[in-house]
Design brief:
By secondary structure, the chain is an alpha/beta fold. The chain has helices at residues 24-41, 50-63, 67-74, 78-93, 99-108, 130-133, 169-175, 178-185, 223-235, 237-246, 262-278; strands at residues 113-122, 135-136, 141-150, 156-159, 163-164, 188-190, 209-210. Helix 4 crosses helix 11 (262-278) and helix 5 (99-108) runs parallel beside helix 8 (178-185).
């Protein structure tokens, strides 16, 4: 009797089809972006058409599919899929709005406030000295801090550069000169208690960043201060929805690549998120 000890799935592995929870408009937008880029650089041939490349890149970004698995199912090498992802992320990140332009747009539309918040994107634990700066004592994990602005409906307007997880939210905002740019266009920002002390304007200046009240050990909050904190929390709730939409992209679950690439990644996902939310 002969023994059959071969692999059940065969030498080439199994291939399956899955559905992406994204609109066809997003796929078409990305495919047109790739076609325009190929025409610009004079690339006459790719192993797969632009629409197929767009679908593969969206599978990596939305579902965190491993490039090696997608490469095997589409007859290309893993490094080819990785190169496509980085190429498309760079194209999308270049279309992310800048801080000054985003604020001027809100001011032109008659808006008076924006919502401000920060979030930590988890990353792999680094080794050696690289391990220390990315550890967030507040969130008890390794990650990168990003600051975001949304409008009063929770639509993302701008995302900052990704900074080491140990960076405080106030320090990140000061690197971006946020309060100065808010005052230049006459806007105010509503933020949580993590941003107390960010607005260092004079006593006679209108506040550029509005936060709640912090209780101290020997100074409890009054009833009026508690009511004010509750009202501000209700107003700034949409900014949490904006971050929730952004984190629907599962590639942000735990960034496994170089942290310096995370800035381009989150800005690219900002562009895709706005297209999905606005459809």
């Amino acid at each position: 009797m002969t023994k059959n000890n071969g692999l059940a799935e065969g030498p080439d592995g199994l291939v399956y089809t899955a559905r992406l929870p994204l609109s066809s408009a997003t796929l078409n937008y990305l495919a047109d972006l790739i076609r325009g880029h190929l025409k610009k650089i004079g690339s006459r041939w790719r192993v797969l058409p632009a629409g197929k490349i767009a679908g593969i890149v969206l599978a990596v970004l939305r579902c965190d599919q491993r490039p090696g698995d997608l490469a095997g199912g589409n007859g290309v090498h893993r490094t080819t899929v990785t190169r496509w992802v980085r190429e498309v992320v760079g194209l999308l990140a270049a279309r992310a709005p800048r801080l000054d332009r985003a604020l001027k747009k809100i001011a032109r539309m008659g808006g008076g406030i924006v919502l401000l918040d920060g979030s930590v994107i988890r990353t792999r634990r680094r080794t050696g000295k690289e391990n220390r700066k990315n550890y967030s004592g507040k969130n008890k994990c390794h990650g990168l801090l990003v600051i975001a602005l949304t409008d009063d409906r929770g639509r993302l307007l701008w995302i900052s550069a990704a900074r080491p997880g140990r960076t405080s939210e106030i320090t990140a905002c000061r690197h971006e000169k946020l309060t100065q740019k808010l005052r230049e266009v006459g806007l105010g920002a509503i933020a949580d208690l993590g941003f107390v002390g960010l607005d260092d304007g004079g006593p006679d200046a209108d506040p550029a960043v509005i936060t709640g009240y912090k209780a101290a050990r020997n100074r409890p909050l009054t009833r009026g201060q508690k009511l004010s904190n509750t009202a501000l929390a209700a107003v700034r709730a949409p900014v949490e929805h904006g971050f929730a939409h952004l984190k629907n992209w599962r590639i942000l679950g735990k960034v496994r690549t170089d942290p310096s690439w995370a800035t381009a990644l989150v800005r690219a996902l900002l562009v895709l998120t706005n297209r999905e939310v606005a459809r």
